[in-house]
Amino acid sequence: MEARKTDSIAKAIGALPYRKAPAGFGARVMASIAAAPAAISWQERLLEQAGLLVAGWSGLLVSGTAWLAWKYWARVVVALLEPGSLTHLAGLAVAHAALAADKLAEWVSFAARLLPGLPPWYDTTIATLACSFIIAALRSGEGARPEAAAPR
Amino acid sequence: MDGMEAELLGRCAAGETGAFSGIVETYQDRVYSFALRLLKDPAAAEEAAQETFVKAFRAIATYDSAYSFSPWLFRIAHNACMDALRAAGRNSSIDEKDFPDIADPAPGVEETVADSMDSERIGAMLAALPPIYSEVLLLQYREEMGPAEIGRVIGAPEGTVKARLFRGREILKKMLRDATVQAAKS
């Protein structure tokens, strides 16, 4: 008797008609999807942030340069018109380049002094590969479960 | 999952937004009905169903085609409905402890009980059940999912699903008995 009753409950629930979704439901869903911004992957987000940083710095540099040019343009023109000013400017540029080259050489020398203190390259490579493997294994295990994939 | 649906899902995963309308069309009545039976409010059900499809579209790349699509979609619908119930302050009706005590069956009324069910009546009774029971009953008998799939939908172990199914059926039987006894008295 219990089985018969359970069967009839199952049959009755199984025969429940689906309620029709309101008219235009599908169109509204598609409109929401079209209106909502697409999900951005972390790589895209990283690129976007880097782009914003570069754009911000460029904007700052351009604004600063434009402001300086606006403020000192008369003095610059006068200085350029003086005899020997171009030679003087070229000398200044060469001095700056020499300073930059000197800084670079110092940085390279510092890195060379630092290198012997670092672990050998094969240690670093093995550690990197091991970490990547563990992360990839954890990620693939997570993706295999549909409940983990389904968003809340 | 039929070939057509698999093809639509593949096109969605490849970024073809228009292909998702086919998925919406296929599942909209099922998801809306499910939400309506849990939330008992057409506006809330429509909102939950809409949220389900939008979230599903955004997460379609994470869907693993090795599994059936409907449990994956119903899991999103389940989450949307539970969020709606919580937002509406109906925590008590989601809670496991919110169910009546079940008395021993009264002998003599079982036969009439078994024959006296129609869609309207069972629909009303399901609506009177706490959502945790109506949900598993609908998923098993209406959506034809097994306990393992239902477990994935509601995020509970298979044992919990079986216990809820049993409990839900028992409550329904008690409701039917009470209704039959009431009808016999009047």
Average pLDDT reading of chain B: 82
Strand content of chain A: under 5%
Shape of chain A: elongated
How many helices of chain A? The count is 6
Query: Globular, elongated, flat, extended or rod-shaped: what is the shape of chain B?
Result: elongated
Q: How is the quaternary structure best described?
A: heterodimer
Q: What is the strand tally of chain B? A: 0
End-to-end Cα distance of chain A, whole Å, is 41 Å
- Mean pLDDT value of chain A: 84
Q: Mind telling me the CATH class of the largest domain in chain B?
A: Mainly Alpha
Query: Remind me, CATH topology of the largest domain in chain B?
Result: Arc Repressor Mutant, subunit A
Distance between the termini of chain B: 49 Å
Q: How many domains in all of chain B?
A: 2
Strand content of chain B: under 5%
What is the level-2 CATH architecture name of the largest domain in chain B? Orthogonal Bundle
Major β-sheet profile of chain B: none
* CATH homologous superfamily title of the largest domain in chain B: Winged helix-like DNA-binding domain superfamily/Winged helix DNA-binding domain
Helix vs. strand class of chain B: mainly alpha
| Strand segment count of chain A | 0
Biggest chain contact: A-B, 38 and 56 residues
Name a few traits of the molecule.
heterodimer; A: 152 residues; 3 domains; B: 186 residues; mainly alpha; Rna Polymerase Sigma Factor, Chain: A; 10 helices; elongated
Account of the 3D structure:
The complex is a heterodimer of chains A (152) and B (186). Chain A has 152 residues and is an all-alpha fold. Chain A has six helices and no strands. Chain A has helices at residues 2-14, 25-35, 42-81, 85-114, 121-143, 146-149. Helix content of chain A is 80%, strand content 0%. The longest helix of chain A has 40 residues, at 42-81. Chain A has three domains: 41-81; 83-118; 119-152. Chain B is mostly helical. Chain B has helices at 3-13, 20-39, 42-58, 69-87, 91-94, 110-115, 119-128, 131-142, 147-154, 158-185. In chain B, helix 3 (42-58) crosses helix 4, helix 8 crosses helix 10 (158-185) and helix 9 crosses helix 10 (158-185). In chain B, 41% of the residues are buried. The interface between A and B is large, with 38 and 56 residues.
